[in-house]
Write a structure and sequence with these properties.
The chain is 40% helix and 15% strand. It is α/β, with parallel strands linked by helices. The two termini are 31 Å apart.
Length: 429
Amino acid sequence: MEDRYYHSEEMLNRALKTIPLGTQTFSKSKTQFPYKVSPYFIKRGEGSHVWDIDGNEYIDFINCLAAITLGYNDEDVNRVVQAQLNEGIIFSLPHPIEVEVAEKVVEMVPCAEMVRFGKNGSDATSGAIRVARAYTNRDHIAVCGYHGWHDWYIGSTSRRMGVPKSTQELTHSFSYNDIGSLEDIFSMKPDSIAAVILEPTSVFEPTGNFLEKVKDLSHKYGAVLIFDETVTGFRLSEGGAQEYYDVTPDLATFGKGIANGYPLSVLAGKKDIMKLMEEVFYSFTFAGETLSLAASLAVMTKLQRLPIIETMRTKGQLIIDGVNDLIKRHNMEQIISISGNPVWTFLLIKDTPAYSQYELKTLFLQEVFAKGILTLGTHNMSYSHSNNDISKLLSVYGEVFPMMKEVVENRNLEEYLKCDPLVPLFKVR
């Protein structure tokens, strides 16, 4: 195994000389992938499979942090992007495709009456916060989930270094499926909350009409309700989680899977709020970049034409059922569970008296990587995942789960682990 990732480790050491963490994305860094047992650089992808720079092949269940919904190198996306490339990428005036994509978003998304584009999910969420503050003439924000790297949000987390204290004090966190925690925020600041922003689902799905209660409470106190659908949009359903759960927010943000990996994000919402974007400054040189817009139009059109989300849900349910069967078969309820929506599930490794979840997760990653499965504990489904891919995943889990149980029972992790264990740093959810 020591030579399996030779070129990846060589490239990582090279990258660290010029790039902090060796990559542009925290979740792709050495903080999440244990050194000596992990790939660090991918060379190419096709469908549901990717190949690292050492030539190792993997079935990819990370899918670029859920940005890939159709699969790598999708023919329909490639074709329209190539055609657009021949026309041009960016111009001194808008290209008509901006209008076409905005119209398609309005057609598909329940809350969307007007649309603006960005590049990253953080662009869209930050734009939503700014326009909500302008609309309400208030400053404070209630948050639940992960919403990007900008000061207004990240200042509420443990990664707040560099964020002014005054900014940190404007953001207040509440707990998912706990409406009382949001009520507490409004009780403390009944006339100060500009917006409530949350991921409509992530590790757990809403219970007890939670989303409806959040909407009612937000509107009771005059706050704008924002759904961060950066992951759930165009994944849970064609119109996102708001369509899936039948709860329409005032604003919503989208990204990731809308363009099958091309960089595009969307801020959409009610016209009376979005019209303020004519005055609220939200402007990007590359927001109208045509290749990503062409890709997004191809993706949305394909979602309407084919049973893509239904297929992802069916395959994802096979994983849920298979993992639960393995957990039951090996009596591992105290070590592992699985949660989430079938299109975006989470393998939850628990703390045990013998070892922490991080130590056990390190062993898990070491073993699944070596067996050709790329995951960080999530299953971000794509349309390209086959039944054989699911069978392979469950077969690998069938080998790795008993090993994890043995380690916990015999307290002999050091006999199996070939690297230093991961340490707790920053959990986004």
